[in-house]
């Protein structure tokens, strides 16, 4: 029972629906107001008892009211919750389906997969019909033809929503996707059949996505016959992405930026861009990276996030495209058990990704390969003793065997890589080293026992926070972790936290807010939401 400041004046009167109840139980009924009376007890309203005064109030807060309702309306969602894409199919079709049936949005992790596999999963996801779903498009500066091929596949298969991630600059295929089919409706409004949600962690990149497509790229599309002059003019009045996820300290590609510092800056940039361009449909910002507890979710909404994006915690759930061994490892991960390591898709550029360091030697071995790449001009320049160690401990096969596998792979995926390697021995070395970086997440997803020390597991510190929050509950067990159950707990807990904050701001702090937002079974949450 809270301490009631003396001399409280009534805020109003209510009809009690029931005798005084435990605070947590009253708070959890989100659709009903909570009244605090002068004796410090909590009540539901709506009954037939005589009216009595109340001195504190927590307003109703249904989950649908969190975030920006226009975002949910435009994308056909019930809740402002997005399961972000994770490469190599870790954010699997099964995960996307689970989110879709729950009225949430999931993105299929197409990055790093063969086109034929992506296409097969698009066929599967098309069965969702009008339910919300999307696919990832990752920036591929070293393989521009692959990025273009994915865009053409998405357009051909009617994919209307993509999550653009790791982009360092706007590419021609991305602009092609955004502007294809643009036209005016009968009422004069501009219709863009395809939407992009850009996942961004740097202001200068965000500014480009908040601006219209670059005129230079529009002219190239017109010259190629992929866009009419009239469509190019229409494209000058739309942003590359109306919706942008501000990506803080996340697993995989990340700039390790703290959300509490970055998000307000991005909000100011959004407002400035909206004033500058005067878009008919306002820009919106969501927040991802580090969101794995109700308190973090509540903080995101409090800062003005229109939606939440989760990633690492979903990898630890049973629907993910990884193996049980990795899920068990993630369940033991603490916040300090992550580190940065060279990225496979942007290896030559020195770009890093955040991975698990506990129980694997991948980060150390990948860093060794990048150091050798910087120090030498070709594989032949690597000292014999060093080469022997690499072939024995890291590659577990000879450089020649690795190159044979790599050459065969790029012959079907991007033959120009082989052509360049024939001319440039340093590029050949990069491709050989990238073989290890590309195979390591595959070994992890498959659970290859002989390669456990080489598992590349994308993960941020949010995983450790989730494990600490769920300790002692049913969610501590990997087999009990389901993406929709986790999502409901984060949203429900965020709403509870906000209602508790309402009471605290009125001078009625709860004794134990941690217990208030502890994990609950999905069936119990739904009972509270009735």
Task: Provide tags for this entry.
530 residues, alpha/beta, TIM Barrel, three-stranded antiparallel β-sheet, globular
Question: How would you summarize this macromolecular structure in one to three sentences?
Answer:
With 530 residues, the chain is α/β, with parallel strands linked by helices.
What would you note in describing this structure?
This protein has helices spanning 23-28, 69-75, 93-101, 115-126, 144-156, 172-179, 203-210, 215-223, 229-235, 259-277, 294-303, 312-315, 324-331, 362-375, 384-395, 399-413, 415-423, 425-446, 462-470, 483-505, 513-516, 522-529, and strands at residues 12-15, 34-36, 42-44, 51-54, 56-58, 81-83, 105-108, 134-138, 161-165, 183-184, 190-191, 195-200, 243-247, 252-253, 284-288, 308-310, 338-342, 352-356. The model has no long low-confidence stretch (mean pLDDT 94). The two termini are 26 Å apart. The protein is of the alpha/beta class and 530 residues long. β15 (284-288), α11 and β16 (308-310) form a beta-alpha-beta unit. It has an 8-stranded parallel barrel, surrounded by 6 helices. Strands 3-2-5 form a 3-stranded antiparallel β-sheet. The chain folds into 3 domains: 12-60 and 484-529, no CATH class; 78-322, TIM Barrel (Alpha-Beta Barrel), CATH 3.20.20; 331-454, no CATH class. The longest helix has 23 residues, at 483-505.
